[in-house]
Structure formats: C-alpha cells, structure tokens
Design brief:
Elements: H1 9-15, E1 28-29, H2 32-37, E2 41-47, E3 58-60, E4 64-73, E5 79-92, E6 99-114, H3 121-125, E7 130-134, E8 138-139, H4 140-151, H5 177-180
Parallel strand pairs: 6-7
Antiparallel strand pairs: 1-8, 2-4, 3-5, 4-5, 5-6
C-alpha cells in the first residue's frame, strides 16, 4: 500500500517554490530602473490572506486587492513608478474590535533612487513624490503591502461606535449601582 503525505501550504512552499497561492511572493522586477525607463506596465492581484504583515490589523483575512504598476519618466529624466492599489479590507475597530470596512484607493508616485544615494534638501522637501531606494531587485508584493500599510488609518473605528463602559443613551454604566440599594438593608 502506498504511503500518502499531506503537505501544508507552508511545507509545499519550502519544498516546491511557487506551488501554492502565495507564489506571487516570487514576482520581482530584476531591474526597476529599466522597467521605468522602458515605460513597462505590470498588474495583478494579491490575496489578503497572503499579506501577513496586515493580519494583526484585520478583522478578517479574506478578500483580494488589485494593483497596477507603471513605469514613467520624470521631467528631468528620472525613473518613476506609479503604483495604484484598490480593493477592500475589513479592519478591526479599535473600540469594539468588530469588523469595519476600509476601501483602498492608493495612487503613489515613487521616484527610484540607488540605495545609499544622497538626496538634496530640495528633493526631500518635494511632496509630489516619495523616494524608493533600490539596490537590486524590487519585490512587487512587498511594495504593494508597504503602500497598503502606509495608507491604513492609525486607529480604525466605526463612525458610530460606542466606547466600552458607556450606555447607548450616553450615560455612564455604573457596575456597582445595584449594590447601592443593599447598603442600608443589611443592618
């Protein structure tokens, strides 16, 4: 009788890279400067379950985000990447810990610079773009996840979410109010 083994997705990824749905982690741009210079376009989708750095902020890890990466040239010939990300996430409300929907609508212009390059004060003060230091390869999934993390609110919460310990009518809940009635009856 043959012996069958069941491998978890993590074990499959360790043995056979790219076997599971997390294979998008392997998508890299070998030369981001050439990608921008040649005005190339790359797009795709990522499963939210595969974006592990987001998990602590989410109420649910289901769903998909869609991304579009396009190379551009700046006015002075600099290499730029325009990244757009769309989709929906269910964030954990910081007041009630319930799920609160958050729509992603990210449009980032990133100027590519060699890692360790010195930037002038004028460049640092330019708010029209962000700088992305690149050494070799550019991991697209990691870039998308970074931009999502930067776009999330610091403390997500529902529009009309009550604070813990406050009654719906706005009055304060007093947990020992029932004991006040017993105060004089025991003697």
């Amino acid at each position: 009788m043959p012996v069958l083994f069941a491998l978890t997705c993590q074990a499959k990824n360790n043995i056979i890279p790219g076997f599971c749905r997390n294979s998008y982690r392997l998508k890299k741009i070998n030369n981001p400067f050439a990608f921008a210079r040649d005005l190339r376009v790359l797009e795709g989708r990522l499963e939210v379950a595969g974006l592990e750095r987001l998990h602590d902020l989410l109420a649910e890890t289901g769903g998909t985000v869609f991304w579009h990466l396009e190379g551009e040239r700046g006015q002075r010939g600099e290499s730029l990447l325009r990244l757009t990300v769309s989709g929906g996430l269910l964030l954990a409300c910081q007041r009630c810990l319930g799920a609160t929907p958050f729509d992603l609508d990210i449009d980032s212009l990133l100027a590519l610079v060699p890692a360790g390059a010195e930037l002038s004060q004028e460049e640092l003060e330019d708010d029209s773009r962000d700088f992305l230091p690149v050494e070799h390869d550019l991991d697209v999934a990691e870039l998308v996840e970074d931009e999502i993390l930067l776009a999330l609110p610091v403390a997500p919460r529902h529009e009309k979410c009550g604070l813990p310990g406050v009654a719906d009518d706005g009055g304060r809940v007093h947990p020992f109010a029932g004991l006040a009635g017993l105060k004089g009856k025991l003697n």
